[in-house]
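Changelog note: in this version the structure field was regenerated for every chain. One regenerated record is shown below for reference.
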Amino acid sequence: MTTTTTTSTTAAAAALAQPPSKPRTKLSGMQLAGLALLLVIACALPFVLGNYRVFQLTLALAYAIAILGLNMLTGYNGQISLGHGAFFAIGAYVAAVLMDKAGMPYWATIPLAGLACFVAGFLFGLPALRLEGLYLALATFALGVAMPQILKHKALEHWTGGAMGVVIIKPDPPEGVPLSQDQWLYFFTLAWTVLLFVAGWNLLRGRVGRALVAIRDQPTAAKAMGVNTAMYKSLTFGVSALYTGVAGALSAIAVQFASPDSFSIFLSLTLLVGVVVGGLASISGAIYGALFIQFLPNVADQISKAAPWAIYGVFLIAFMYLMPTGVAGLVRLLRHRLGSR
């Protein structure tokens, strides 16, 4: 027992004491070229697709932000959340209410939605420190189940619109910009996606990211090495909620509507599916997971209109069997094999 603890402490110390090295924190020229090409393709898509497909891609980008936030919590820090749809709802309603009641411009509501969700996530994370594993999952599940009912409560009905929700106007592009409304919102969402993914990459590839992984894998050893596990866990919950809240705000602006029934527990489970399918503890996996949860239901509906969710379940099982480490894990494996030849 003593030997095992000593080994764990040594491993945690090695991970935490390792200084940030340039090869680990900087992308190679090939990776930068690949990211630049991906960004060029993303910028070109709105000009070759119809408005509805552009709208779907906008929602996929918003989902990618939410999945990255959830992956920080679950994949990197090991805290299971089944209620992140609640933070998605808070972000959506903050943006919708500020636009509808206060007349605030849509772009100004995004950081406020993120800030509100950061505070909510941090405060929720404090009592949740006493919970681990399935108990934390059940607590967050309760939050996800309760949120739609809270939004319908009479005390909040003046702000949230009750069961009817809040309708907002889709913003026009800036004057002189030759884009449709859907195209402009796509690029607006894409800019937020790039910003938050770059911020997430810098956060998770440095000392903070190593501390989160150490807490996930060896919490006792990490604490013995001086890591403030309670503060890291609470802040991770807050940052994860911030990402999800920004995603919710962007989604509400794109959909032009925020309703309690849109944020049922099914949304929380869908985000978790996106994390697992994309790849746990993977930044790029958020993109794959978002594309999966956005487009696969449509594909399943086209295959069988009588039982689309049965088809969806078959696809999900197939993904788990064929790619147990997620799509990002498969991509890494293929890249490694091709590079070794």
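Spot check on this record: The longest strand covers residues 166-167. Residues 1-25 have pLDDT under 50 and may be disordered.
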